[in-house]
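Render this sequence as a predicted structure.
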Amino acid sequence: MTKYIIIAIVVIILIWAVATYNKLINLRMKVKESFSTIDVFLKKRYDLIPNLVETVKGYATHEKTTLNQVVEARNRAVSAPIEERGKYEGELSNALSRLFMLSESYPDLKADKQFLKLQEQLQTIESEIEKSRRYYNGNVRALNTSIQKVPSCIIASVFGFKEEPFFELENQNERNNVKVQF
């Protein structure tokens, strides 16, 4: 009788270990998939930016500095390693903000259908990136929580599961309130 109890306990522990391992694998795959989703939208944004810059160039030939900053920020973000991508994404967002502020100085540009279409597409993509970041961070939270909780932390440490970083702002100034003056 004692032998059956021990076997039952071992089987229960084995089932629990397999279920916990599978849960951690599932969470890790969700994190990878959600980061991939962010990459898809970032790629769309990177592909859209040169078109936007070309449209603005025709109207704002003497604003080369702003245009160059946008292109340089885009190139840095595209080539950044994954762990540094948040920092460069912040720089790119700042450069794009300056580009759209530039359009305020050029009424013809603000009325240009191509510019308006590109601006609308970029705003849509930015919204999708923001949603994707939230989805990614939610998946990272679920994985990291499971890795830290007892008893699943035992399985996580045995099989080498590591915590994933959240997609956060690198530029602390972006967290400050925006000052608007009329």
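Summary. Residues 177-182 have pLDDT under 50 and may be disordered. The radius of gyration is 24 Å.
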